[in-house]
C-alpha cells in the first residue's frame, strides 16, 4: 500500500514533516526529553555530534558516545506531541520515503524518556530517580488506535471503581515498560514506579491558581489507590503515550523520571538542573 501525500507528509528536502529529519539522521537508540534546552544537556556528554537539527519544539542531536550512536530529541510537553514524535520516528525507519511504501523488514527502536515528575507518595525523596514500570494514561491517546490486549484491564477497572471515574471522560489505560530496557536501567538506587500521565499541568494535576479544578478530591484518590500492593507513585505528562505507541509500533520503551516535586509534602527540588544531569549521566553510562 502506497501512502498518500496527505498521510505521510515529506518536506521539500526529503525530511519528515514535523521533526525535519531524514532517515539517516537518527540512531536506533533514542533519548526523548521534553525541554528543547535539555537536548544539549544530554548531547554535551557525547564524544562527537554529527547531526543538529530543529523545527518548532522538536530539536534533535545525533552523535556517538564510546562508539555507540545515540540520538536525543525534544518532544515538547504532552501526549499530543508524543503522537507526532513516535509516529514520525517510526516512519523514518520503517517507511521507504521514495516509494511511500512500508518496508518489508521492521526496525525496532530503543526509546528512553528522561523526564521530570512529581511524586504523590510522601516516602519518595526529592531528587531521587524512578523508572515507570507501569503507566496509567488519562489522555485517551491509545483509544484512537486499534489495539488488542496490550493494556491491563483489571487494574483499569479497579482504578475506575476506586476513583469513581467520570464516565464522560476517556477510560484510563494501563501499560507496562519494555522489560528489556527496564532491566538495563535496573539499580538499587532507583525505585520502580506506577506513573500517572495527565493531560495538563494545572487543573488535571489538581493545581489551583485562579481556576478551581473540578475534582479536588482526585489527588487523594490517586495517592490511596492500590492494586495487589501496586500503588501510584508520580504524575507527569508523556509516559503513557510513549508506552502505547511504542508497543503498537513494535519498539522498546522505558521512562526514567527525576523527582523534582513531592505533591504530598509540598517540596520542590532546590537543585533541579543538577538532579536532572545526574539522571542523564546515569542513563548514558548504562547505554554506552
From TrEMBL:
GO terms for molecular function: purine-nucleoside phosphorylase activity; uridine phosphorylase activity. It is an enzyme of class 2 (transferase). InterPro entries: Nucleoside_phosphorylase_d, Nucleoside_phosphorylase_sf. GO terms for biological process: purine nucleoside catabolic process. GO terms for cellular component: cytosol. Its EC number is 2.4.2.3. It holds the Pfam family PNP_UDP_1. Gene3D superfamilies: Nucleoside phosphorylase domain. CDD domains: UP_TbUP-like. Residues 29-262 form the Nucleoside phosphorylase domain. It catalyses: uridine + phosphate = alpha-D-ribose 1-phosphate + uracil. This is Uridine phosphorylase. It comes from Maribacter aquivivus.
Amino acid at each position: 500500500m502506497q501512502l498518500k501525500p496527505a498521510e505521510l507528509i515529506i518536506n521539500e528536502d526529503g525530511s519528515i514533516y514535523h521533526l525535519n529529519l531524514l532517515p539517516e539522521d537518527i540512531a536506533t537508540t533514542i533519548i526523548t526529553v521534553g525541554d528543547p534546552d535539555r537536548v544539549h544537556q544530554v548531547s554535551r556528554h557525547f564524544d562527537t555530534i554529527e547531526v543538529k537539527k530543529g523545527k518548532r519544539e522538536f530539536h534533535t542531536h545525533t552523535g556517538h558516545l564510546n562508539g555507540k550512536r545515540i540520538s536525543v530529541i525534544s518532544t515538547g510537553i504532552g501526549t499530543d506531541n508524543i503522537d507526532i514524535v513516535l509516529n514520525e520516528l517510526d516512519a523514518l525507519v520503517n517507511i521507504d520515503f521514495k516509494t511511500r511504501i512500508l518496508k518489508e523488514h521492521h526496525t525496532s527502536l530503543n526509546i528512553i524518556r528522561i523526564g521530570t515528575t512529581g511524586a504523590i507518595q510522601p516516602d519518595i525523596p526529592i531528587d531521587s530517580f524512578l523508572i515507570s514500570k507501569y503507566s496509567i494514561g488519562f489522555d485517551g491517546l491509545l483509544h484512537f488506535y486499534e489495539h488488542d490486549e496490550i493494556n491491563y484491564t483489571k487494574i483499569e477497572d479497579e482504578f475506575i471503581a476506586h476513583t469513581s471515574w467520570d464516565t464522560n471522560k476517556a477510560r484510563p489505560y494501563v501499560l507496562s515498560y519494555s522489560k528489556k530496557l527496564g532491566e538495563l536501567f535496573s539499580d538499587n538506587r532507583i525505585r520502580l514506579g506506577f506513573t500517572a500521565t495527565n493531560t495538563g499541568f494545572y487543573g488535571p494535576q489538581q493545581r489551583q491558581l485562579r481556576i478551581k479544578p473540578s475534582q479536588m478530591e482526585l489527588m487523594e484518590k490517586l495517592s490511596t489507590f492500590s492494586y495487589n500492593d501496586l500503588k501510584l507513585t508520580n504524575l507527569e505528562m508523556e509516559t503513557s503515550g510513549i508506552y502505547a505507541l511504542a508497543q503498537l509500533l513494535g519498539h522498546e520503551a522505558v521512562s526514567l523520571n527525576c523527582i523534582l516535586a513531592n505533591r504530598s509534602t509540598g517540596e520542590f527540588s532546590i537543585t533541579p538542573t543538577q538532579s536532572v544531569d545526574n539522571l542523564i549521566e546515569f542513563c548514558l553510562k548504562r547505554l554506552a
